[in-house]
Design brief:
alpha+beta, nine-stranded mixed beta sheet, 7 helices, six-stranded mixed beta sheet, 20 strands
């Protein structure tokens, strides 16, 4: 059966989709985003990215198929063959250099929704959310009943892997700081490099990723010690097994929510300024084919270009003739 739906992942410096770029999922090639607050390299890995079953019919057979854009994207990545990612469903990894210093309390990472979802929230969500905060991310907070629902966590405790790098050249802030291993496997390791490890040790930040997350949940005084410094490189990886792209549903203990659009955002919660946005959009096949047809038409050679038809209004000059 032909694919019925396509999953498209884009990234950009704001919520405005006209400034977004298509992310090459599982490719090992990061998408570069520049915003007023940062320069960033963003990579997305998704397990079973092509040919997933989006919905079943009454006989338990696949009724709707899901494929990934751009067409021909790898179904998986070496990222998912290495611990601790063998059970993960997706990853958003990124390197970024802030353009101004942001306090440790202010930078958050999480989900935005453009429209209300209160009518799709199942009974018992409040109890399930308490379980999620206890078991997954105690720092998670939000309002899913708002007109523009959100679920944010402080970046220092929500991000699974954090590596601190050096101060860099403003003209080429990210340079070649993405290693060959990261390009091939998307592997970012907890710690620091280029002076970053010494910075962590000076602040008594634990070397272990899970311990670092718990440490920053230990009180505001610890968040206040940290600054996301202007001009310094940070590498981060966010991953979990709870977002099922075969059903395009967020699955948490006791809770499942289907969405056609899901946004992840890194932002300054105090000013509302966005560093970058990553958008996962579920598109029907017809829409994808229409967009591709328009793109192909725009690539057709113009009448005055080699290979095009003659322009009927074109009149040669006298010195053009033999």
């Amino acid at each position: 059966m032909a694919d019925k739906f396509f999953l498209r992942v884009t990234a950009g410096p704001s919520y405005d989709p006209t400034f977004h770029q298509l992310v090459a999922v599982n490719s090992g090639t990061p998408t570069k985003v520049q915003s007023p607050l940062c320069d960033a390299d963003i990579s997305v890995h998704i397990q079973n990215y092509r040919g997933g079953c989006y919905d079943l019919n009454r006989d338990g057979k696949c009724a709707e198929f899901l494929a990934g854009l751009p067409r021909g994207s790898p179904e998986t990545s070496p990222y998912f063959s290495q611990p601790p990612h063998t059970y993960d469903q997706y990853s958003i990894s990124f390197s970024f250099v802030p353009h101004r210093t942001i306090s440790g309390e202010s930078l958050v990472f999480g989900n935005d929704f453009e429209h209300p979802i209160r009518d799709r929230i199942p009974p018992g969500f409040s109890a399930a959310f308490k379980i999620v905060k206890w078991a997954i991310d105690p720092g998670l907070h939000g309002d899913v009943y708002a007109d523009k629902p959100y679920l944010y966590g402080n970046a220092l405790s929500s991000i699974n892997i954090l590596s601190v790098g050096p101060k860099v050249d403003e003209k080429d802030p990210l340079g070649d700081l993405t290693s060959d291993t990261e390009k091939d496997e998307g592997a970012i390791t907890e710690g620091g490099f280029g002076g970053g490890q010494e910075l962590r040790e000076a602040l008594d930040i634990p070397a272990n990723a899970a311990a670092r997350q718990r440490w920053f949940l230990g009180g505001h005084d610890r968040l206040e010690k940290w600054e996301w410094e202007e001009g310094r490189v940070y590498k981060a990886d966010f991953f979990n097994p709870y977002l099922d792209f075969n059903e395009f549903a967020l699955k948490l203990p006791g809770f499942s929510l289907k969405q056609e659009l899901l946004l992840y955002v890194l932002k300054d919660k105090d000013t509302g300024e966005v560093l970058f946005v990553v958008v996962f959009t579920l598109l029907p096949k017809e829409q994808v084919e229409e967009e591709e047809a328009k793109a192909n038409k725009s690539d057709t050679p113009k009448a005055t270009e080699p290979g095009g038809q003659a322009d009927p209004e074109f009149q040669p000059k006298a010195d053009d003739l033999d």
